[in-house]
Amino acid sequence: MKINDVITQSFKKQLIENLNKIGITTSSIECILLEGSALYLQQPNDIDFKVILKRYFNKAEMRRCFFINGYTVECVYYTFDDWANVTKYKSNAQYIVESKDMICIYGNDSKFFRYDVVTNKELQSYIINVYDKLFFNYKENDKTNKMSDKRLWNFLLFAFKLQNNDDNLSDEQLELLQKAHDLELNKEDYLPLFNELKERILITS
After folding, report:
1. Paired strand residues for 47
2. Which of 82, 98, 144, 180 lies at a C-alpha separation of 20 to 30 Å from 91?
3. Triad 176, 157, 110: Cα angle to 5°
4. pLDDT score for 143
């Protein structure tokens, strides 16, 4: 997906209008950041945003889908402080892997904390533990939600960043993310990669 071709000024205006309709005022929005598969894939299916607010509006912050220019749009909400501390109160904030890639499409993101999973060993341990418990070695009697097989693409994003020792991915790696997202890959085939990363991370952390 070519982001600039999709997220136009008209798109942004409609997004703000939809947020206004559910009770989130324009003045309460610090910034809006593009996140999720649309950052990496040619065919993401939907478009996800993080909306950073000055304060929460509980009734408005439920996950709801908007439809803008033929795309399904979903938003999640944080304050700057809560986002900067998300790993302290959420046991499954594996999406922080994307934070250095997230693109601000509205407002000022200078206070938005970008988690560095490439160099931060503590964050690596946190994330590998999430994929261990909720994806590769999920126990059926666990009370937490199991990740769907589609989430292989999120794991591969994490794995490739660590393999590359860089946030940038090759074209071949991006193609694998797309295949994983489209359920064309089997997660069992990537269990050895997971185990390799887990051992490496636990040894160095």
Report:
1. 73
2. 180
3. 135
4. 66
